[in-house]
């Protein structure tokens, strides 16, 4: 981190005039010494077991489809048992071994993650609906030695690609590995894990280019977890219900991956959904008395407008964590009318929102009115790096919050490379202990994204205001070049989504002889137009809720759109 001169740093926004760097106004979150051998598994379980309110008999995981449950006690025992079973498969002297996981969300996945991480095996989870050609590409990127897959999708993998074979997660063999340890051997196998070792390879969505494998270290996840522990809302009501989180987002994505770690460290209960369905989500909230739910922006719009919502008792819900794009004020207000007791956290402290998805959420806090808490994070940051942590901060609608602990930022002119001051727009650069190691097997992409001083170039057009709040304008590569102007699709999308009869919308550039490009909107609703409109059944998105604009551009250029 850069040494700052207090006399040259503005206490209102953390901007250092000497270095042109923005610094966090949060108290620093304490981190273990970098030289200390520590896996994210050991760190997370130590936080869990030091929590005075933790009870081993508490439900940790519940499958919303089958209602099967796993208590914390069973989870820890199964993790220990699986670690013991796998230790004989993975030679301790072989470093940098990667395990591919191809499976829908289930009670087994967290056990697999924590077990492999404790053994210093890099976890590489992928989307179970990936095609064989996509999987071939991902396997080449991460070079895994073993795969864990369910029997329904294992046929998409070639066993010859994995030297240690494929373990079928729903087989008797695997189930025996979860329960075969004797009590005397029921301990995590001691393998030295350096915090700088790669913990996970998570894949970027590829919405602005080819898919890349993001290398995140144990230190990265420890830093984010520390932030979630030491920078969160303080509960004002000691009689609040036990936190129960619904997971409608996939565990193979950075959002779900880190939220799993965070929830474990805090002893929360997680409701897993193998496949997302809006109606089933509402049923699960009612059945399991869900208090918190991380979602993508379209779900907030649906919850504010859908006629299905009033059919269910959602009174247990206290907090919604939203990531994917800044939420419009009108949508937030409409949500607040229907859910006056629910906070909207988009996404949070330590921050999450996205330029890719969100991640960390604060501990549920008691707030007198619905608040839109926003934040920013991406796969390359392992989670969130900005957020809100007080009701006063939450009043800054449209903002992604302030920098989280241990994070530095710059706003850089993309043309000149000059670092800019507050209220000036430029590319957001980030630095801190949660920033990725790089893109696996892609030195060129790593060098283009990270400089020699450890700054991550996010590719997002942003600015900080005079109070240190971050505002995200749009992706630099997605700005529409209309005549001499640059138009941000996200701003038009937020406007369209604020219209009561519009369920969802996406805006793309469309070729125009006179203007160069014009904004074209895809609208889910028979409503009005901007310059060019196409009606569509649903907006194509990644599992994390990011709009796949390139798919819409292909659709538009193919002449399939309607011109109004």
UniProtKB/TrEMBL annotation:
- Name of the protein this chain belongs to: 4-coumarate--CoA ligase
Q: Which GO terms describe its biological process?
A: phenylpropanoid metabolic process
Any GO molecular function = CoA-ligase activity
User: Per its UniProt record, what InterPro entries does this chain match?
Assistant: AMP-bd_C (IPR025110), AMP-bd_C_sf (IPR045851), AMP-binding_CS (IPR020845), AMP-dep_synth/lig_dom (IPR000873), ANL_N_sf (IPR042099)
Q: Which residues form the AMP-binding enzyme C-terminal domain?
A: 491-525
Q: Which domain of life is it from?
A: Eukaryota
Q: Which CDD domains does its entry note?
A: 4CL
Which keywords describe this protein according to UniProt?
Ligase, Phenylpropanoid metabolism
Show the PANTHER family listed in the entry.
Answer: 4-COUMARATE--COA LIGASE-LIKE 9 (PTHR24096:SF251), LONG-CHAIN-FATTY-ACID--COA LIGASE (PTHR24096)
Q: Which PROSITE patterns match?
A: AMP_BINDING
> Per the similarity annotation, which family is this?
Belongs to the ATP-dependent AMP-binding enzyme family.
| Pathway where this protein functions | Phytoalexin biosynthesis; 3,4',5-trihydroxystilbene biosynthesis; 3,4',5-trihydroxystilbene from trans-4-coumarate: step 1/2
Task: Note whether Ligase occurs among the keywords.
Answer: yes
Question: What are the AMP-dependent synthetase/ligase domain coordinates in residue numbering?
Answer: 55-347, 373-439
